């Protein structure tokens, strides 16, 4: 599981590395980028999960995240969105298969052998980053669209691993939109009972955001959503997440951003707010 550096760039006084390694979770090579601020550290970590069709490169080159990460002293880790390769199952559509891992462990053929992104991110990736970089051992998670769904569901299902969670234009209830229904049918099968664990709105409705003492596991969840996003009404449905959170007593700051679409121009406009949100919680 040793990391191999394929490219290195200086950026905002820190270092950006593109890396690859042989993953035991997916049984394939996996690629990622890691930004480390200037200095010895140790630094807390923000994991970023990207959306449909993305590799680690989209966020790395388009989000403009590293000035704020350097200022706050935060490592940013951006993994690829799925296993890839000739021996890995795929589908010609952009919303299934390679580039569309949905951050879950598939149980169905032909996906189950390699599509194990929940185990990859929550187990192997975190262990690898803590072993190979000067981290404080605390981390937060954020992401966009399918990656926003990933950030929310991984945080809700593994609250001990993450200090805080935020998302841009997340797929808030994949069991109730076409992207999610298609992917979950393929990866998890027809039994919808197995789907709910991977639906952020349903997890919050079921009490996943509450700790055993009745308080919130997360003091707040920051969501930015552009109101000119072409996927807003049919796929993203933030109103379902907000309604579930309000009913469950989980604070969510849902910011509807006027005029913004689904692109990385939207992320670039608000990523500094998200890094500040996480940095405040990562340093306490
Ligand atoms: N290709 C799809 C949309 C895919 C898409 O918008 N992907 C988003 C995440 S859901 C993205 O980040 N794309 C890569 C990029 O903008 O760099 C379509 O045309 O409907």
From TrEMBL:
Organism superkingdom: Bacteria
Hydrolase as UniProt keyword: yes
Sections of the chain in a coiled coil: none
Catalyzed reactions per annotation: S-formylglutathione + H2O = formate + glutathione + H(+)
GO molecular function: S-formylglutathione hydrolase activity
InterPro entries xrefs: AB_hydrolase_fold, Esterase-like, S-formylglutathione_hydrol
Keywords in alphabetical order: Hydrolase, Serine esterase
Top enzyme class: hydrolase
Residues of the signal peptide: none
EC numbers for this chain: 3.1.2.12
Function of the molecule: Serine hydrolase involved in the detoxification of formaldehyde.
UniProt record similarity statement: Belongs to the esterase D family.
Family annotation (NCBIfam families): fghA_ester_D
Name of the molecule in the record: S-formylglutathione hydrolase
Species, as recorded: Brevundimonas fontaquae
Gene name of the encoded protein: fghA
